[in-house]
Amino acid sequence: HRRPSFAFPEFTFNDEDAEFFRAEVHLLEGPQGYDVMGLSETQLISDVLVQYDIHMSLLHVAPSTPIAAE
Q1: Could you give the CA distance from residue 61 to residue 26 in angstroms, rounded to a whole number?
Q2: What is the pTM of this model?
Q3: How far apart (Å, rounded) are the C-alpha atoms in residues 24 and 37?
Q4: Is the pLDDT of residue 69 over 60?
Q5: 25 CB neighbour count, 10 Å cutoff
Q6: Structural domain span for residue 66
Q7: Could you give the number of structural domains in the chain?
Q8: Are 39 and 22 in contact (CB under 8 A)?
Q9: Please, which residues bridge with residue 26 across strands?
Q10: Dihedral sign computed on CA atoms, order 5, 7, 21, 14
Q11: Angle value at C-alpha 39, between 49 and 31, nearest 5 degrees
């Protein structure tokens, strides 16, 4: 994959220096198994917001202290 045009706009890159880039989703639980490299800027922002919303929902539902096994 080529580096998205919106990634690191403050730097100048030569096409001759093209490298392989992979943007993989990795959360606290580990890799999520999907690559976001082909997403547009808007799609990437949307994915981050969806993942954050899921994370916040889980925090709200999850107990704040572990339940001891009997």
Answers
A1: 22
A2: 0.53
A3: 7
A4: no
A5: 13
A6: 1-70
A7: 1
A8: no
A9: 31
A10: positive
A11: 65
How does pLDDT run across 10-66, given as a tens digit for each residue? Answer: 767 666 556 656 667 777 778 887 778 778 888 888 988 998 898 888 877 766 656
Structure tokens at 1: 């994959």
SS3 35: strand
The first and second tokens of residue 32, run together, are 């999520």
Where do the DSSP E strands lie in the chain?
24-27, 30-35
Amino acid sitting at position 35: D
Query: Which residue's entry shows tokens 């009997």?
Result: 70
pLDDT of residue 3: 64
Radius of gyration, CA atoms only, the chain: 18
Q: Which residue in this structure is represented by tokens 């976001």?
A: 36
Encoding tokens for residue 42?
A: 């808007």
Alpha-carbon separation of residue 41 from 14, 33, 49, 66 (angstroms): 21, 20, 12, 38
